[in-house]
TrEMBL record:
GO terms for molecular function: hydrolase activity, acting on ester bonds. Residues 459-639 form the SGNH hydrolase-type esterase domain. It holds the Pfam family Lipase_GDSL_2. Gene3D superfamilies: Carbohydrate-binding module superfamily 5/12 (2.10.10.20), SGNH hydrolase (3.40.50.1110), Single-stranded right-handed beta-helix, Pectin lyase-like (2.160.20.10). It comes from the Bacteria. This is SGNH hydrolase-type esterase domain-containing protein. SUPFAM superfamilies: SGNH hydrolase. It comes from Collimonas fungivorans (strain Ter331). Signal peptide: none annotated. InterPro entries: Pectin_lyas_fold, SGNH_hydro, SGNH_hydro_sf.
Amino acid sequence: MTALTIVDLDNAKLDVDHIADIATSPASTATDRKGNTKLTVQGAVDTIKSVNIRGAWATATTYAIKDVVSNLGSWYICVIANTSGPTFTGDAANWRVYQGVMGESLAADAGALLVGFKQAGTGSISQTIDRKLHEVVSILDKGGAADGVTDCYAATVAAASSGFSVRFPFVAGASNIYWFNSLFPTAELNGKRIDVDPGVVLSIPNNNYIFGSTVGADMLNFKHTTRIYCRDLSRYYDASPFFRQPSANKSLWLSDAEYDRSTYLALQGTGFTARQVAWSTGDTFSADTFTASNSDSFTVSGAIGGNIHMGMITIMPGDKISCGMAQTGTPLNYAIVRYQGGYAGVYVSSDIGFTDVKGFTKNVGQTQVVLSASPPGQGSHQSYAGLNGILSIRIDAWNKYSILLNGLVVDSETTPGAIYEAGFGILPTSAGQTTKFQSLHICRGKPPTAGRFIGIKIFGDSKSCPRHDAWPNYMKEALEFTAGLRNTVITNLAVAGTSTPDMLASMQTNGVAGASVVIIEGGTNDVQGGYAMANSLANIGAMLDLCTAAGAIPVVIIPGMWYGQAQAGSGGQASLNYGNAGLLRAAIIRVCIERGGFIVDPLDYEGPVLANYINPALTPNLTNAGDSVVYDNIHPTTMANRLTGMMVARKIMGILYPQNVGSKMFDVPIATFLNNWGGTIAAPNLQISAAYSVNCTGIINALAGAIKTNGTVIATIPANLAPKHQIDVYLVTDITTERVIVSINPNGNITITGATASSYVNLSGLTWQIDNR
């Protein structure tokens, strides 16, 4: 045995230390006494656990063990060296999930169970995407398609059986038509919420599935307004969600003022008075005779092209008289209204083509004016031909009437004097022509409503210009179908940033033709720009004149209130001169009064327009306590736009449909004097109240040669303003010793008794109640 040397012992110690380094050193390598570097235990572990990140998996690529790749959102580690094939799925045996889950697992039916979900906020529970997605069932889940070809019946039935809400989603790039080939599952959808995305159409074979001929059609519950195409009709139908809304969401309420207390009464043909007047120059109505008359009708005829032959009856505001017409030949049929100082009305041809419809006015001593009425449907709808029409005359106020054919207003006019008589007649155009006005009846007490088309043009600035919540949108919503009104077209010519000179130029360029109503909203930018008030008023006045000349009704929206950035605290528009608009507002109102403009004043309905609603530094602090009316210091909020739209609609309706008895006194002058009596001292007048009471004022005085024998008729008033029974009253005269009796007769005659020496009678204080029936 070789003896150990000191060197051997030193080497042994170095080797032991080296072994200790390999076992315990945190370094990855250790060097022995001969200079050889070896892995330590730590280094070996590090070597074993290291991977090679290769990025996204690719085809035809060599992969080694521990290479890591990504595929479909998950990471995989190579366990078998390989050269990749055309698909990752084909190489799946060479890989194991390194981080995430297998795409195949997520794509499986139960894949949604592998993904968790927790709603934000306190109290939320942990759940899976699987549970969350089952809250709503789409028919796409059941094999339906938005392609306009696939029959979605079975898919809808399956979806309806799986949940409370059945969804028809919008699919980008698809036709978004859900097709139902021969059946629509009305019964299966009974009680379900049908959730149809905007832009989606349900194409159904037969309208019976919607309109109630199929079981369950009356119980369909649409979440949104849904467009349905009925292929049997080739028409679209918009199904409303409001049909099945709970009572808490009720939007239609009736107040006492909206109750219909109207009454319909039969009119006797024998109750009409036969009259005639020379067409088209006559001012004097003379007695005539009917060809026949009975309890239901009267028949008129006459010579060719001479007089209008008619039957007339006393009429009151709020009355609408109507009849059917049966004619021999094709005479012109007339609806006629008589008023103090003249008569007016409409004549219609009685042919199927409805070729002649004209309105006319004949004031005493003046040339007749004839205008074409041209109602919609003329020449295209036999239902509105004179031959097929129910002809109606409605008295909207003491001095306003409308004439209707089958409920459609063909003419509506304001008269210079009080209306007192109306009726129907003919002008024969060839021998032997007659018209029987039959089924005569009257409607009393109904608010003035009727089918009517109107066109509206709007001139204004940024407060009126087109945008999603502009007040014209709300105006249209309020007007459409109210009292039978239909909007033919609303042309919005308002432009942001414009002032009244720009609006006038636009009106001069574009005109107001085709507009029944013209709305002018301007002046705010005039104030902001320091524009001279006189110029603003001249521009508005010129626009009003253009409207009047074209026969359009002008409605002017007075500039509203606004404030500046300083009041708002910060932000919003840098509005100017907000404190300088008061004079212009008042002056615009005065111009409207003088030029015939109708006024909508935001000061009447907007309430205080204060920055307190958005600036907490102001006192009182009203921040978030209510709507600020203007959202950027000057432009209206949605609520304010809704208010303006409603107020403009109310104004238009008030113009088109005035109260049938009026809300103030209506003056009717006594203008017809007889037997050399007159009203030259103090013109006599009748004041009619909203409650149909008559109050007399003024003096009837004797002229040269006045007849004073007892019972002399000294004046006449319209018969519809006369009392139901004769009134005899002692009145003041200039001879205090004479007891003069003035009598007001039901036929409208005013007679005098006992006026031997008296030269006048004072009517002041004489009152009676009209028979308003």
